[in-house]
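lol forgot to send this yesterday, sorry. struct tokens for the thing we talked abt
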């Protein structure tokens, strides 16, 4: 009885799976607007260790969250109350069980995450995707990675109650080491773009801010964008805001008489364009332009989409003032959570010192730094059979 799984469950594991978290380099709040995003999967994620049991129940344990939950498999799975963490994996299992015509047996599960939870690095997608992938394999359904992403997104909508776009789940499933993923969230066409950073690191800074984008505020932004689409339709037939080029937007923006809606829509349109340009810059090895586009992305999220807040703004503005920083912006949903910066490797220590000092002086909080490496998407780590 050596491993944690064996100590907790009293028997051996059958298999171990891993799905990564992600950092979005640019293209924020565009995914549910049919726009482009440009994230990469990172070397922090969620591991699922699993084995069948003879008790016809699902047992959920996490080293990161309480409570331990046990559910009989001979029932219809429904979301649990009080925003229980189990809803994220359970919504995936419910769909796979339906596809398989029911679960043939129970399973003991242990989740272990090293993505900071709720920090905008998508621990939620990593726990969903690892679960969807594991059950797709265990039940012999062998879904494609795109189908896995859709199952995971549906779980977040219907069991966790967050109307998120497809980006997080898509990259947790399809990410590739040394690449960022350029995804069209409308058509799901995607391209793996090699990242050659040559002496530059992707530094993630965790604000550890108590404020974060809750599901209510997130869903409010989703609704604002839907409302903007309805207004613009009086003038031009569109399904999503991101279908508008900046020129189209200039022609139809008078339909947005509400100043707030205008700002929200302007962010989506300009961010979609910046994401296109950023991918081109990276393909040409032009990291300076990439960095400037990241900075412009942050300003748009701060001024037009209004999802930054004093903590993220302080971190980003301190980064902009630091030598050796090519670009810096908030990443993820916003308010609290993390920033992402491109920093020359020889400037990382000075960056940490400067940003920490300014941040603590202004907010009283302590920033934490991670140097992100890119990672592959969901995969099996070990199979006992
Ligand atoms: P983010 O995806 O940015 O980390 P979310 O609020 O979308 O933040 O998701 C965080 C939630 O996901 C946690 O509060 C928890 O319910 C669930 N979760 C993620 N990873 C784990 C884990 N390893 N164990 C248990 N729950 C997890
Ligand atoms: Mg999430």
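and heres what i got for the seq, position by position
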């Amino acid at each position: 009885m050596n491993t944690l799984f064996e100590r907790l469950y009293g028997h051996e594991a059958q298999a171990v799976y891993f799905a990564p978290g992600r950092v979005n380099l640019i293209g924020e709040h565009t995914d549910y607007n049919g726009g482009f995003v440009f994230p990469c999967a990172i070397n922090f994620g969620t591991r699922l260790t699993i084995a069948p049991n003879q008790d016809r129940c699902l047992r959920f344990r996490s080293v990161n969250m309480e409570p331990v939950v046990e559910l009989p498999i001979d029932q219809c799975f429904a979301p649990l109350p009080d925003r229980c963490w189990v809803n994220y994996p359970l919504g995936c299992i419910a769909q796979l069980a339906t596809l398989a015509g029911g679960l043939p047996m129970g399973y003991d599960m242990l989740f272990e995450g090293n993505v900071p939870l709720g920090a905008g690095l998508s621990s939620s997608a990593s726990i969903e995707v690892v679960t969807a992938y594991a059950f797709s394999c265990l039940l012999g359904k062998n879904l494609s990675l795109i189908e896995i992403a859709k199952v995971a997104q549906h779980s977040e909508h219907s069991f966790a109650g967050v109307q998120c776009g497809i980006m997080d789940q898509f990259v947790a499933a399809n990410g590739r080491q040394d690449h960022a993923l350029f995804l069209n969230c409308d058509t799901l066409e995607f391209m793996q773009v090699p990242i050659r950073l040559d002496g530059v690191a992707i530094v993630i800074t965790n604000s550890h801010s108590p404020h974060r984008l809750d599901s209510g505020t997130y869903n409010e932004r989703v609704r604002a964008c839907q409302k903007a689409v309805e207004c613009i339709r009086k003038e031009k037939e569109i399904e999503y805001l991101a279908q508008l080029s900046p020129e189209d937007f200039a022609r139809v923006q008078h339909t947005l008489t509400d100043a707030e809606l205008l700002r929200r829509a302007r962010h989506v349109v300009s961010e979609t364009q910046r994401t296109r340009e950023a991918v081109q810059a990276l393909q040409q090895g032009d990291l300076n332009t990439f960095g400037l586009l990241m900075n412009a992305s942050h300003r748009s999220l701060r001024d037009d989409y209004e999802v930054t807040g004093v903590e993220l703004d302080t971190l980003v503005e301190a980064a902009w003032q630091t030598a050796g920083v090519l670009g810096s912006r908030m990443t993820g949903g916003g308010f609290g959570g993390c920033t992402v910066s491109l920093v020359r490797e020889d400037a990382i220590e000075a960056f940490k010192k400067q940003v920490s000092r300014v941040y603590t002086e202004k907010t009283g909080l302590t920033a934490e730094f991670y140097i992100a490496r890119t990672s592959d998407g969901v995969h099996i780590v070990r199979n006992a059979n």
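The two ends are 19 Å apart (CA to CA). anyway ping me if u want another try
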